[in-house]
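User: These chains co-purify. Model them together.
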Amino acid sequence: MGRRRSRLFADLTLALLLAATALPFLWQLLTSFKPEADLLRLPPFLPERWSIENYATVLVHPGLSLALLNSTGICLIATLLALGVGALAAYPLARLPLRGRGLWLAGILGASLLPVIALVSPLYLGIRLLGLRDTWLALIVPYLALSLPLTVWLLTAFLREVPREVEEAARLDGCSRFGILWRILLPLAAPGLFSTGVIVFVFNWNEFLLALTFTATDASRTVPVALALFPGIHEIPWGDLAAASIVVSLPPLALILGFHRWVIRGLTLGVLGRR
Amino acid sequence: MTRRPGAWPFLAPALLVLGAVQLYPTLAVVWLSLERRIPVFGVAEFVGLANYRFLLQDPRFWQALVTTAYFTLVSVGLELLWGGGIALLLHRRRRLRGLLLAGFLLPWALPGVVSAKMFEWLLYPDGGLVNSLLGAAGGPAGINWLGDPAWAIHAVILADAWRTTPFVLLLVLAGLELIPPEVHEAAAVDGAGRWRSFVHVTLPLLAPVLVVTLLIRTIDALRVFDVIYVLTGGGPAGTTETLTVYAYRIFFGTLQFGYGATLAVATLLAALLLAGGYLWLVAPATRPAAEGA
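Assistant: Joint model of the two components:
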């Protein structure tokens, strides 16, 4: 009896906590479907008339659609580069005899503790000097670098999980080291590679400080900056902002929720070293 | 035997990128902090420690430091209670587990800017959900959450903690799953109740995971930028201005790169000191877990 009651209590508490967690998002979702005129009149809390005019407004707004294109391109390229460079570095850290392996790993991971504000001014001066301000490259290279510590760390953990015997067989067949990594280890570690890619892509998609500093126009502006600078002519256009928030959240949401098992496995293996 | 040099071609690209985009700027910002530097006007002169002398007497710096500390402490504390609590409820639960986890994970996927916009709208004084509900319940009317110094800092803390709690939840849950169930059965046999079992068995075994989680979250909260920049811009009256927001304004609002760099170095030092402190804590804490693994 006591057991059943305590389980019911736990279920109820969980349901309440989940509702509280989802509330800000659900409210934004409801708001995005309300006509602008109905927004500030509460109650009713649910839309009386469902409307997609907010979505129509933000999707034809060039700032947001170009930002979606910029974000997709920049984050995709940076993530793929990080996976490539990261896999190369993870191989010796996981498999080859290397003096001071622990120190190398600690040093690479330690880079992720640096506050971005400490990097932003020298990077800004360098980007200005090279004439790269407001280009994709000005964000791709920093995003690649900021992703690398986590990528190397996660891929090292994933590569370690591949049984050594597979590798030995390939070596006896005369496969080069690069061949072993490319043809044997990476295909076997593909799920790890994929979950790392998802995590890194979402982090890059959401990055704000560098994006705000290194972009100036629609040529390179990413979605968090476009959303932060979303124009309001007279008053704050809450309905448009809500629709824009939902639109820019869809890619990371779909990735994280769609692949949440893989993301969780990657994260716990990477951070806690075990699963 | 040419085994050892074999590792370098693999490591070189990563080290090159990290060197150029992480190591070089970290050294360059220290150098910059010793200069008076205003890029648009071509001003660049070495001034030694003058910026640091100014920093020590700058009340705005001290206020930003206190604000950052308060933000970090309260935000991470909330996340630990909220995320840890949910993890305990989800632990060893099989029914609907995947669905519940996905639901709790949702805020973590969102950009910080989106979280800020959501809370700005929820807390909007005339017509936002919070004040409408308060009004309907007969509570105080028209509180200006983001304009009132006493409320604003807590509003930004809430917007940040909401988005980052899932991370804590995930790690604590993973940590709980690592504890073998037999340990609790043994404690029950010895007559320990649930509370005593939690305090004397679960918590000590969870300690290494908690320390790692706290380290990551503390460093992250310490360098918070997006939520505050978008939600309050550091106001009202500078009460939500953290070190990163202050440094950003000096860099790109007033273009004083020298003093901005000094503030950035101060932030860097704070992060390194905290990380060092945690590592010092972790050294003895990880040992039993490493043996148990």
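The first helix of chain B runs from residue 8 to 32.
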